[in-house]
UniProtKB/TrEMBL annotation:
Gene Ontology molecular functions: dipeptidyl-peptidase activity
Domain of life: Bacteria
Keywords: Hydrolase
Annotated spans, Disordered: 474-494
Composition skew (Basic and acidic residues), residue ranges: 474-487
Gene3D superfamilies given in the database record: alpha-amino acid ester hydrolase ( Helical cap domain), alpha/beta hydrolase, Galactose-binding domain-like
UniProt xrefs under SUPFAM superfamilies: alpha/beta-Hydrolases (SSF53474), Galactose-binding domain-like (SSF49785)
Matches recorded under InterPro entries: AB_hydrolase_fold (IPR029058), CocE/Ser_esterase (IPR005674), Galactose-bd-like_sf (IPR008979), Xaa-Pro-like_dom (IPR000383), Xaa-Pro_dipept_C (IPR013736), Xaa-Pro_dipeptidyl-ppase/CocE (IPR050585)
Keyword Cytoplasm in annotation: no
Name of the protein in its database record: Xaa-Pro dipeptidyl-peptidase C-terminal domain-containing protein
Domain Xaa-Pro dipeptidyl-peptidase C-terminal: start-end pairs: 330-566
Length: 579
């Protein structure tokens, strides 16, 4: 059984098996490395699968954990702390997905690869691991982000040897992963191309475009021409390049070409598959990237088996490797893979860190407390108040801003409204809405809303965000409730310039207490600064596609147009706390 080499990590000796070949049911083999203690006894295994390359993951043995904004942070080193996994007496199995790294086969598209579901490959991989003499037959999974999403895809296939999963920072609503409120996000480009703090996919010749495989060259030419008629896309050099030369970055080409939700994103969507997951699942996410929290909560609600939801503190980017969550993960697997009753299942199902108060709130569901959605109205002189505006538009004239395209300016125009300093701790936990009455002079724009907690000394922390492309303003009336709007994003409907429209933005989930003396500040723009208190913590490519045309915006907030935030209060704020 001794078929390994040994290395040292600190005082620890680690057995390494390199370039194992794992057969899939269609004859393709995937490549894998394993790391374990040197003894020959069988151990539980933790499987990590991605297209980022198993050799990259091995850097966890030699590079101390890095957190943004460290320039050494690499968002693709996501399989976990190898030495810690071995120390806890598991076999760490790191595999390359088909079409990447040292694996065979073709990888067509994104997570929903087409042809062979990635979950099917994960099933075969896990069952192969369970049969090996170095594994005791009990398998869990490990890894953040892409690795986390793969855990859900695997669990939905129900491999018998997969006993539990611990998912940190996964992406679940595939459309919302790239288009936030219909506004394109560039971070998936970074993960695929290797830009802005990410090494990117371990591309081989086996990675192909789903679009190019599906449509004829003539159809692709027509679809590309249509996409380039979007002035936002046509003004951005990287997108023009990708659309013109699609074989350069096939996976990113597919995402750019699918700007509305539909079958391309829905097929094998983890949230759709969640009811098939019946093994124990712990979902963990940190605050600061609201769309990821939103998808995590939606997935949690759809799961049918034993489950936990753990929402951690700001800032949003965990270390690579993600050592912050390892203590929780090993408690989870100690219980489900080693059979040790450590009390983890006696603890509350939902645990939420509340920013501001730095308290931990627990409960049986999300949100963990009863919530009352209350409005905060946009008022003249950039105020937010619990009281609505009484004057009409002729006296309460709209606020406004003109944004020139970023091709001709470096300045992002931002409107802001703020409460008076709160006079008592004011807690909010949940998701919300922003009702904005806006007139624009173009057929489309972005509406980007960011909410901040501003301390008396001026220091600010981002609390949550909301995004909506104006042409995606249609609401899903069946799912939308007060303070909980949903948009189908299945088509784009141009805006009639010069008309006043009510736009309802989904305010992503958050948990925060505004302490006495602090203010809630809401900022509105149609682009976002590349560097501020929050964006400095993100990789350089973690911004959204700017609007490619000049747009004048007027925001009405009068008696007939009650622009407002609808927020999830868990404690009654003082009547004058935000006048």
């Amino acid at each position: 059984m001794t078929d390994f080499q040994t290395i040292r990590a600190g005082r620890q000796e680690i057995a390494v098996r390199k370039d194992l070949r794992v057969p899939m049911r269609d004859g393709v083999t995937l490549a894998a490395d394993t790391y374990s203690g040197v003894g020959d006894k069988p151990r539980p295994a933790l499987v990590a699968l991605s297209p980022y390359g198993k050799e990259l993951q091995a850097l966890a043995l030699t590079t101390p954990p890095q957190r943004r904004p460290s320039p050494m942070w690499d968002g693709c080193i996501e399989a976990g702390d190898i030495a810690r996994v071995v120390q806890e007496d598991y076999v760490h199995v790191i595999g390359d997905l088909r079409g990447s790294g040292a694996s065979e086969g073709e990888h067509i598209g994104n997570y929903n690869a087409g042809g062979v579901p990635l979950g099917q490959d994960a099933y075969d991989f896990i069952e192969w691991v369970a049969r090996q003499p170095w594994c005791d037959g009990n398998v869990g999974m490990i890894g953040i982000s892409y690795f986390g999403t793969m855990q859900v895809l695997a669990a939905a296939e129900r491999p018998p040897s997969l006993k539990a999963i611990f998912v940190s920072g996964g992406h679940y609503d595939f459309y919302e992963t790239t288009y936030h409120g219909g506004v394109m996000w560039f971070m998936p480009r970074a993960a695929r191309e290797g830009r802005g703090g990410d090494s990117g996919w371990a591309f081989t010749d086996g990675v192909k475009s789903r679009m190019l495989e599906t449509f004829s060259p003539e159809e692709i030419k027509e679809k590309v021409a249509e996409r380039l008629r979007d002035p936002d896309v046509a003004a951005w050099p990287n997108l023009v390049h990708v659309l013109t030369y699609p074989k350069n970055h096939e996976a990113w080409f597919d995402i750019v070409m699918n700007e509305v939700d539909g079958d391309w994103y829905e097929e094998r969507n983890p949230i759709t598959l969640a009811p098939a997951v019946d093994i124990p699942v712990w979902l963990q996410i940190d605050q600061g990237r609201g769309w990821t929290m939103d998808g995590t909560i939606e997935l949690y609600k759809a799961l049918k088996g034993p489950k936990k939801l753990d929402i951690g503190p700001y800032p949003p980017m965990q270390s690579r490797p993600f050592v912050e969550e390892h203590d929780k993960m090993f408690r989870w697997y100690e219980y489900w893979l080693k059979g040790i009753d450590n009390g983890v299942m006696d603890e509350p199902a939902v645990t939420v860190h509340v920013e501001g108060s730095r308290e931990t709130v627990t409960g049986a569901q999300w949100p963990p407390k009863d919530v009352e959605h209350r409005p905060l109205y946009l008022r003249p002189r950039h105020k937010l108040s619990f009281e609505p505006e009484l004057m009409g538009a002729e006296h309460a004239a709209p606020d406004g801003f003109y944004q020139a395209p970023l091709t001709v300016t470096d300045k992002v125009e931002i409107l802001s409204w703020s409460t008076a300093p709160f006079t008592e701790p004011t807690e909010m936990i949940g998701q919300g809405a922003a009702h904005l009455f806006v007139e624009i002079d173009q057929p489309d724009t972005n509406l980007i809303l960011r909410m901040w907690d501003e301390a008396p000394n001026g220091r600010r922390q981002l609390i949550t965000t909301a995004y909506l492309k104006a042409s995606h303003r249609e609401l899903d009336e069946e799912r939308t409730t007060e303070g909980d709007p949903h948009h189908p994003h299945t088509r784009a409907v141009p805006v009639e310039p010069g008309g006043i429209e009510e736009y309802v933005l989904r305010v992503y989930p958050f948990a925060a207490t505004f302490l006495p003396g602090h203010k809630l500040v809401a900022e509105l723009s149609n682009a976002e600064p590349l560097a501020d208190e929050h964006n400095a913590l993100l990789p350089p490519d973690a911004f959204h596609l700017p609007v490619g045309r000049p747009v004048t915006h007027k925001i009405y907030r009068d008696a007939e147009h009650p622009s407002r935030l609808v927020l999830p209060f868990t404690r009654a704020a003082a009547p004058d706390a935000a006048r």
